[in-house]
Structure formats: structure tokens, C-alpha cells
Design brief:
Structural class of chain A: alpha+beta
CATH architecture of chain A: 4-Layer Sandwich
Number of domains of chain A: 1
Order of helices and strands of chain A: EHEEEEHE
Shape of chain A: globular
Low-confidence stretches of chain A: 124-129
Largest interface: A-B, 40 and 40 residues
Number of strands of chain A: 6
CATH class of chain A: Alpha Beta
CATH superfamily of chain A: S-adenosylmethionine decarboxylase
Helix content of chain A: 10-25%
Mean pLDDT of chain A: 89
Oligomer: homodimer
Strand order of the largest sheet of chain A: 2-3-4-5-1-6
Radius of gyration of chain A: 15 Å
Largest sheet of chain A: 6 strands, antiparallel
Chain lengths: ~130, ~130
């Protein structure tokens, strides 16, 4: 479950924010499916999941937070609108947060919209990849 | 602990990303202090914490994720640099994510730098505040 390593000193990364739409409402209230889809997307994109937390709201909607060795990912679903907010923040160069967003969208049969990437922190220090 | 309400249909919010620096390293490895400071900051800024998740990395550094009724907040600390990444995402108009970031920074005796706000989702629907 846990990989304790973190690349010390890399105070730099990319934070990708996106919205997804046109999704079947029943998928967006299925906590286990959403946890699994988010875990698979970030893992396939090169990140390491340390832990996850989920919550199903009443009357509808799910939040899943994923703690990553590289930072974090989150989804907030709106079944009533067929819509999702997703963000993936990864430090270092090993993981690709935009790929993670695209893979998660594909698992829900859609494409991301309003995708934006914020570069955070310092440039990599000398000797970093 | 839990307030299950979520304002249905408000697929709109503000996501504030910031960095903090110049902080005493020992504070940035103190999981209980960081959980408490984040909880207090988002609560005072009008958000409702549903749950929290923390992780202390080896050899140093802490991540805390807060699940909010309004979306989420996160911190990632770098004691070796005296630095923190923080982001607070709140849907609806009740909570003020920028205030939450400023309150958290104040609890650590510093001011936010590189603060940016991304507006996400749709404009509020008719009849919303």
C-alpha cells in the first residue's frame, strides 16, 4: 500500500485542474468504481498512492482524495450534472499529472474540458532530472 | 465531525494555490500541529471539515488532506526548505479559500507567496446566492 519514499528537495511540480462532463450519473455515485478508477489512473501515470479517503454525500455526489508520494489527487462528482472536478498535483518529474487526468476521463468514457496546468514551486535544483 | 450537506447544483468554486516559506522546520514535521492549524483555518474561513488524512514521510515532510463539504484542502510540507505547498478548493460562496490560506500561513508565522486563484466550473445558476 505504502511507498514511503519522497524525492527530498524537489519543491517543484505541476498541478493540473480539469472538469469532466457528459458522464452517466450512476457511475458518479459509485464509490468503489471511482476509487479504483482514480487509483489506476494515477498509478498508470507514474505516481504512487500512499492512501485514499472517500465520502459519499447526501443526496448524491462523491469525493475521493488520494494521498500520493508525489503530492495528491482529488475528484468531486456531481451525478445530477454528469460532471466531475478533478485535480492532480505531482512533484518531481516521474509522474505525469495530465496523463492521469486523461486516463481517469477515459475510464468514465469522456474527455477532460477546461484543463489547466499550474507550475508550482522552484525550478529543479542542479543535478535533478 | 461530519456535516453531510452539500449545496446541490453548485458546480462552481474557487481553487486557491499558494506557497509558504521561511517556516521553522520543526513545525513542518509536527503532524498534530499541522492538522489542527489546517482544520482551524478552513473552519474559520467558513468551510466544513468532513474528514482528514495525514501522512508523515521519511526522512521528513508531512501531507495533510482535508475533505470539505465544499471540496478539499491540502498541505505538503518541506521542513528541509522551511516551505509548504497549500491549496484550498471550495464550491459555493459560503467559504473563502483565500482567507483559509492566509489564516493557515498566519498560524505558521508567515505570509503566502505565489498565491493564485483558479475559478472552476459554471457560474451559479439562477436563484443561487
Amino acid at each position: 500500500m505504502t511507498d514511503e519514499t519522497r524525492t527530498v528537495g524537489v519543491f517543484a511540480g505541476r498541478h493540473v485542474l480539469a472538469e469532466l462532463g457528459g458522464i452517466a450519473p450512476e457511475l458518479l455515485d459509485d464509490v468503489e468504481f471511482l476509487r479504483s478508477a482514480l487509483w489506476s489512473a494515477v498509478t498508470e501515470a507514474g505516481a504512487t498512492v500512499c492512501d485514499m479517503l472517500d465520502h459519499r454525500f447526501e443526496p448524491q455526489g462523491v469525493t475521493v482524495l488520494a494521498m500520493l508520494a508525489e503530492s495528491h489527487a482529488s475528484i468531486h462528482t456531481y451525478p445530477e450534472l454528469g460532471a466531475v472536478f478533478i485535480d492532480v498535483f505531482t512533484c518531481g518529474d516521474r509522474a505525469d499529472p495530465e496523463q492521469a487526468v486523461r486516463l481517469f476521463a477515459a475510464a468514465l468514457g469522456t474527455d477532460p474540458v477546461a484543463l489547466s496546468t499550474v507550475r508550482r514551486g522552484h525550478a529543479p535544483v542542479e543535478g535533478e532530472p
